[in-house]
Specification:
Shape: globular
InterPro entries: Ald_DH/histidinol_DH (IPR016161), Ald_DH_C (IPR016163), Ald_DH_CS_CYS (IPR016160), Ald_DH_N (IPR016162), Aldehyde_DH_dom (IPR015590), MeMal-semiAld_DH (IPR010061)
Radius of gyration: 26 Å
CATH architecture of the largest domain: 3-Layer(aba) Sandwich
Enzyme class: oxidoreductase
Structural class: alpha/beta
Family: Belongs to the aldehyde dehydrogenase family.
Number of strands: 22
Strand order of the largest sheet: 14-15-16-13-12-18-19
Organism: Parendozoicomonas haliclonae
GO molecular function, one term: methylmalonate-semialdehyde dehydrogenase (acylating, NAD) activity
Largest sheet: 7 strands, mixed
Distance between the termini: 76 Å
Length: about 500
């Protein structure tokens, strides 16, 4: 009998009464490893109600004690780091080193959540007017929700609930139905760290369950990472129901390569940044803009990509794993075929990739196109596979125009030895996260993850100070105190009471 993934309700793994399920498959073999239930409406309502009940007490837990919970949690995550990475590898197909990185980047956010106290400090001014003081307090919102994607099942949930909970909220997580085992293990370790009942709830499902979170009156804020279409739906629905929303959506990240850059460094970095994690990451470099003589490096880029080999999670020689599903593979293969039809030159074609011993896996080999133009679908669409599109331009201004005309603004990088060119690019490019001689400029968690344009819908970003602002409200109190007169002091104190006015 196929294992069913439980819900996580009030610190217990609970079997759902749902009859409808979604199969969870091993992407390297096609084998069904478990089933995720479509959480019933009654279970969804109960999860939200219990999170609301837990909030009433959790919000009053002292900030240092919340921080200590996160310290205990990060210690447990480190202790179980490799275990989590193996669970993650088996259900996503990621190679083990990549999976360990996924877990570690989440641990870094938990460490920042343990340091939340300075970010929860309000402000005060004495004597804003004679005898009047004003103080602001940072207070939690209530029940928050997170909807996370398949590609980072450890890191992205850990972007969300530790910061929300450290701020005094309770949280309902709806992880991807394609790899729910990693988030469930995260929840179990959170309980082991000492999280009270109801502070974190985990439910499973699809659109119906998501829409319940987006429309329920008791959900105050929603965090989302995923595709453009779903991100727009989440943002519109949540805000239509008067909720806060932060929605991280699609990307088309460009690497601008200037001819004065170090060629070997460019080639080394562009290979990993484009096909690492099978290209299934929102910060992947999927477009290289080769400026001037840098276009002559295409044969060497092709040669380096051709050496990259996909394989199973425990294959130490494999650079990346399979795509998450047969549907994802078919979509990527369709875009590769369309690129050829549109007139791009396919210098390296991974469409026929196969891995010995895993012939049923969702494999796509490294693929390289040159001669790509902005009108082509392989440029306009986020491929989300191990495909690198190369564009060739004459000068820096042409490259900057291409990047700024993109509807996305998640990440970009420039490789150059010119400080002046790097500074101008950093200043003028319309992208939220910029790398200079760094291919994937994901900020550490004491900053915030700051995608722009069509890559993000909302006002406050993930982790860092912006996450604290997203998960909290500011209360401002202005007060004046009058010293009682002698007569009123005697009247209120009584014969056996005194008032010290010093």
């Amino acid at each position: 009998m196929t294992q069913r993934v439980p819900l996580f309700l009030n610190n217990q793994c609970v079997n759902s009464s749902a009859t409808a399920t979604i199969p969870v498959t091993n992407p390297a073999t096609g084998e069904v490893i478990s089933e995720a239930p479509l959480t019933t409406p009654d279970e969804m309502q109960q999860a939200i109600a219990d999170a609301g009940k837990a909030f009433k007490s959790w919000r009053n837990v002292a900030v240092p004690e919340r921080s200590r919970l996160m310290l205990r949690y990060q210690a447990l995550l480190k202790e179980h780091h490799d275990e989590l990475a193996e669970i993650l590898s088996r259900e996503t197909g990621k190679v083990f080193e990549d999976a360990k990185g996924d877990v570690w980047r989440g641990i870094e956010v938990v460490e920042q959540a343990a340091n939340v106290a300075p970010m929860l400090m309000g402000e005060s001014v004495e004597n804003v007017a004679p005898g009047i003081d004003t103080v602001s307090y940072i207070q939690p919102l209530g029940v928050c929700a997170g909807i996370t994607p398949f590609n980072f099942p450890a890191m992205i949930p850990l972007w969300m609930f530790p910061m929300a909970v450290a701020c005094g909220n309770t949280f309902i997580l709806k992880p991807s139905e394609q790899d729910p085992h990693t988030p469930m293990r995260l929840a179990e370790l959170f309980r082991e760290a000492g999280a009270p009942e109801g502070v974190l709830q985990v439910v499973h499902g699809g659109k119906e369950q998501v829409d319940t979170l987006l429309t329920h009156d008791d959900i105050k804020a929603v965090s989302f990472v995923g595709s453009v279409n779903v991100g727009q739906h989440v943002y519109r629905t949540a805000t239509d129901h008067l909720k806060r929303a932060q929605c991280f959506a699609g990307a088309k990240n460009h690497m601008v390569v200037m001819p004065d850059a170090n060629k070997q460094q460019v080639i080394n970095n562009i290979v990993g940044a484009s096909v690492g994690a099978a290209g299934q990451r929102c910060m992947a470099i999927s477009v290289a803009v080769l400026v001037g003589e840098a276009r002559d490096w295409l044969p060497e880029i092709r040669e380096a990509l051709a050496k990259v080999r996909p394989g199973a999670w425990n294959d130490s020689g494999a650079a990346y794993g399979p795509l998450i599903s047969p549907q994802a593979k078919e979509r990527v293969l369709g875009l590769i075929a369309r690129g050829k039809e549109e007139g791009a030159t396919c210098l390296l074609d991974g469409s026929e990739c196969a891995v010995d011993g895993h012939l049923e896996g969702n494999w796509v080999g490294p693929t390289l196109f040159s001669g790509v133009t902005p009108e082509m679908d392989i440029y306009k669409e986020e491929i989300f596979g191990p495909v690198l599109c190369c564009m060739e331009v004459d000068g820096f201004d042409d490259a900057l125009e291409i990047v700024n005309n993109s509807p996305y603004g998640n990440g970009t990088s420039i490789f150059t030895d010119s400080g002046a060119i790097a500074r101008r690019y950093r200043h003028e490019v319309e992208v939220g996260q910029v790398g200079i001689n760094i291919p994937i400029p994901v900020p550490l968690p004491f900053f915030s993850f700051t995608g722009w344009k069509g890559s993000f819908y909302g006002d406050q970003h993930a982790y860092g100070k912006q996450a604290v602002r997203f998960y909290t409200e500011t209360k401002t109190v202005t007060s004046r105190w009058f010293e009682p007169s002698f007569e009123s002091s005697q009247a209120t104190s009584g014969p056996n009471m005194t008032i010290n006015l010093k």
